Amino acid sequence: MSRQRGIVRTTYYGRLRPEQPAYTIATYYNRPGNGTNIHPHQDRTLTTREAARLQSFPDHYVFLGTEGAQRKQVGNAVPPLLGYAVGEKLAEPGGAGICVDFFSGAGGLSKGLELAGWRVAAAVEKDRHAVSTYAFNHPSTTTPDPTDPRALLRKVDLTSAEARASVLADIRTHLGNKKVDLVAGGPPCQGFSTAGWRSKTDTRNDLAIIFLDMVAALSPRLVCLENVEGLLNYRKGQVLIELQRTLAEMGYTTTPIPWRLTAEQYGVPQMRKRIFLVGQKGGPALSAPIPRFARCLGRREKRGPALLPDTLPYPTTVAEALSGLPPLAAVRYPQTGPRPVRPGFARWTSGALSVAEFLSGSAT
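The chain above was modelled as a monomer; its predicted structure follows.
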């Protein structure tokens, strides 16, 4: 059993496999001991641009701030291609509309939603470096104006009741007479009390509760809460049950189990698992987006059957993700393996293909 466990879990101090997607890109991709962060062909760890590609950020997306701040932004981001898959699915009930992105970070989810046709009318984040990155990459303004098509970007710590009231007032002013169709965000849920949203002793210092407050205040047609897979079992599942119960009381229908999405099945060159708790007001629960790529089994890939039919293409690989980037050290381990390097992903990140063209396989 320990031998099997070693095969599955020994990913620290690892070299990226060029013929597979990467393992999860975390905030310390500059350290070999914090994951599989060693370049597949060179004896070094990943750069921020390389990590950004593995997160499916296009090359024109610039990260600002200190080196550590940039790593935090990249590692904590929702991969834009995963956000695109979610946004495309959420657009199905009534077409893409107006959304607000709370806890927006560097803007990965916003970027994906925009690619799917959503207009991000407002974004809220407290980290100053992430706000700078968001402003650099998304047309935005800090002054609410209903005639301005840019996103209202606010640097705010939402744990303050006064700040929440100010943000809501500014969002309503910026929207004018328009209604929010979607409220999205990835609030940390670790502190969410099982006493929940209705607790009379609630001090409103929990970010998941605050997110629900914003949903209640804006009353969108759709709500999408993104989080790590561990939320499914956190506190024996009671936190998730309470979140779903609260959304139901607000009039939102959710699936019994949140969407469990594996990033490589949606074009991201990375085996990153995330859940999305999606609710629709006045309509049925929405099913998860259909995968476009097969699932990678990582170190177990040669030891078990594929989880999806062979009709789906193999996921974007590390070699494909890093294709075209200049070497920063001697290339000691050339690309070899059974899979040819398809040009589609690198052409999309460089701007030569649209996201739809890449996902359709028109450049494979």
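Residues 92 and 364 are 27 Å apart (CA to CA).
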